[in-house]
Amino acid sequence: MNTSTTINPAEFTHEQKQYLQGFFAGIVQRGIAPFVGHAANGLITNDPASRLPNHAAADTEPTWHDTPISDLSREERWKYEQDPFAIWDKILQYSNQNQPPTDDDRFRFKYFGLFHVAPAQDSFMLRLRVPGGILASHQLRGLAQLAEDHGCGRADLTTRSNLQLREFQPRDIVRVLHRIQALGLTSRGSGADNIRNITASPITGLDPNELLDVAPLAEAMQAYITNSRDMFDLPRKFNIAFDNGGAISTVADTNDIGFIAVRINEGHTIPAGIYFRVLLCGITGHRQFATDCGLLLRPDETVAVAAAMIRVFIQHGDRTDRKKARLKYLIDRWGSNGSGMARFLEETEKLLAFPLIRVPASECEPRGPINRSAHLGIHPQAQPGLHYIGIAIPVGHLPAAQMRSLANIADQFGTGELRLTVWQNLIIPNIPTEHLEAATQAIQNAGLDYKASTVLAGTVACTGNKGCRFAATDTKSHAVALARHLDARFPILDQPINLHVTGCHHSCAQHYIGDLGLMGVKVSGEEGYQVLIGGGVDNDQGLARELISSIRFTDLAPKLESLFTAYTLQRQDDET
Ligand code: SF4
């Protein structure tokens, strides 16, 4: 199609015009003031000029601006040829004409959170941003209506405490963007080379064991990103997590930046209090966990430091090879044996108005224990008399009717708040003791379960071949079938088993960190899996090892049954 046709604004629908007005007015997020103020003031630079050559941050090191255009990757050239955020005339045209985008515009659409999923489907998936995974009941209800009106009638919970809606036709995308904005949500920057949904411990603010409520930090980080144009100029995607040091993990060690709350007691050079360790360069699909970079930050320094680190990555990250464009590879390129990390921290410090404090991790109290089952079932909160209920959502599939039921339960028995977890499950907080029985009954009446099972409750799966062109297998259906099969035969294991099922080597479901990890492969033309075992995160950190290089899905259940039998017979004490 000829995408250069002149657009006549007079032909815009009412909703398209409304969306444009709202879009250019900017999207205001909640609860950000004290932190954003510090972040903005703490940075030497915070303007689009930081993207120009010879900026102070560049010093003597050539930046990506010095790379000949012909050497840039295909996606970088697309960004260079047209700013992805400057394609509104095309979006309106595609919408008006109900046409799928060209390859380059398909990439640019992802900056708006819109994924055209051809050839798996001829439709769009919309990925939202839900900072900290915190949702309000009216938002969930509104998304249910949107999914029914224009999509497939379902939301998918993701491994970044986020939501995706599927099967929107091109003609509906402007209306869809308008409606999520009306719900106080945004999808801006949720795909392509951007900072993905900011995760936080899902019971932060409620957790009796936490060191600090990190929700305000996640929200401040989101607000900083969505209101700073240069935060959308990354060479590749980027993940950030805030861990409250409490009972539930955010798998912070799988992120590019993982902030972990720690305590410093009296008797150190640093005043006693709560600080953050900073883990860098987690990318488990490339078999690397994030490691402690030696910094100790005050809570109100975290957003500014993350922004400065991202700006260093923007300036110096690889723009020629997509496989080498993540933060890990920049630091690897800058030197081995810690010299690359030291250089990265020096470059970061140049962009900050305060010094970075380096303190060995050994001076901090070790992170408290993680309860692998705490995201499911009934648990007391820090607030006396209140509880949260963790609800299993198998592989994150949530039909509109259940979305409404959960929103109603949150309103009727809680405070209208819901939390999403990185395990593709959901939590309803703030339920008084006297309402627990009625709330759990309502959950069961909605066809959902709040009790932890051996496998299904800890199962995550990527989109698979029902909606992703890279997938070798139908991951979600296979994951549910396998988990139900194993739960039926091993109903009372004291250790939950995390099953991670991913459809290709991109590892969106992080198969390297599962107790049991499956990666989709073709086996003589049939759907099958590579099988890995022994992965873990946090205190159980480890990359899963290959057990079976490839096996047909139809042969897999009996093999896993034998594996589980051997595990239950031979394990020692509470061996995972
Ligand atoms: Fe698609 Fe591969 Fe990611 Fe699964 S892991 S969603 S198949 S890219």
From TrEMBL:
Residues 121-182, 379-445 form the Nitrite/Sulfite reductase ferredoxin-like domain. Residues 192-350, 459-555 form the Nitrite/sulphite reductase 4Fe-4S domain. This is NAD(P)H-dependent nitrite reductase catalytic subunit. InterPro entries: Cbl_synth_CobG-like, NIR_SIR_4Fe-4S, NiRdtase/SiRdtase_haem-b_fer, Nit/Sulf_reduc_fer-like_dom_sf, NO2/SO3_Rdtase_4Fe4S_dom, NO2/SO3_Rdtase_4Fe4S_sf, NO2/SO3_Rdtase_FeS/sirohaem_BS. The keyword 4Fe-4S applies. It comes from Edaphobacter aggregans. Belongs to the nitrite and sulfite reductase 4Fe-4S domain family. Keywords: 4Fe-4S, Heme, Iron, Iron-sulfur, Metal-binding, Oxidoreductase.
